[in-house]
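Hi V.,

You were right to ask for the full record rather than a summary. Here it is.
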Amino acid sequence: MLSMIQKLAFLLLLTLLLASAPLAHAQGQQPHPTEAVAFEQYLGAQVPLDLNFLDETGATVRLGDYFDGQAVVLLLSYYECPMLCPLLRDGLVNSLNEVRLNVGDDFQVVNVSIDPTETPMNAASAKTLTTMRYNRPGTEHGWHFLTGTQDSIQQLANAVGFRYFYDETINQYAHASGILVLTPNGTLARYFYGIEFNPGDVRLGLVEASGNKIGTPVDQFLLLCYHFDPSTGRYTGLVMTIMRVAGISTVLIIGGAIFVMGRRSTRALPV
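Predicted structure:
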C-alpha cells in the first residue's frame, strides 16, 4: 500500500504532466502564433506624433493633435474584438471613475484600432458604449477612438513595444492587454498590464506623466486576446494563460499538502 505522502507525490507528478499536455497538443511541431505577441516596455521612448489616423467622425487627424499640454492614456486594441478588448475598455473606465482627474479636462484618452479594416463607424460605436459607462457627462471631447492604415498602426505599435499577430484561419488578432500613459510631448511614461487597473496607480501615473516624469519598469503578466479554436484543436492566448495559472496553483496546493503531511509524519515518529 502506498503511503499518503507517496500518493500525493504521484498526484503532483500527474498534475504536472496533465498541465503540460494541452500546451504540447496546442503547439504541435509548428511555432505557436502567440510567440509573435509581446508588450515590451520602451519607457522614455518618443512615439511618432506625425502619424495620420481617422477619428470616430471620419476626420483625418494627427496623433500629435492629442498631445497639447496634457498626459495621454493610450490603448491599442480593436473594436470588433470578441475577447478581451471590451473588458480592457471597461477596466479602464472602472478605474477612471475612481480617479478625481477628469478625462478631457486633465488628460486625454486615445484608443487606436490595430485592425486596418475597421472604420470610423466601428470607432464611433465603441466611443458611445465607453463614454456611457464613464460617469461624467460632458467629457466626451476627451475620448478619442481612431482607425488607420496598416502602416500607421504598425509604426505606432512598434514605437510602444506592442507586437501582435493576425490569425487568418479564425480571423482574429492575438495581442496583449494593457494601457500606456504618455507625457504631454508623447514620451512613454508608464505601462499597466491586464484588464483591471488600480485607480491610485493610474492617478499617480497621470500626475507624474503630466510633469514629464518617466516611471520605472513593472512586472509583466500578459493576458492574451485569443482563444481555443475547435477547427484546429488549439488552446491559445487567454485560455492557455488560465490553464497555466490553474496548473501552477494546483501544484503549489499539492506541494504544500505534501510538506504538511511530511511534517506531521515526522512528528508522529516515536523518540
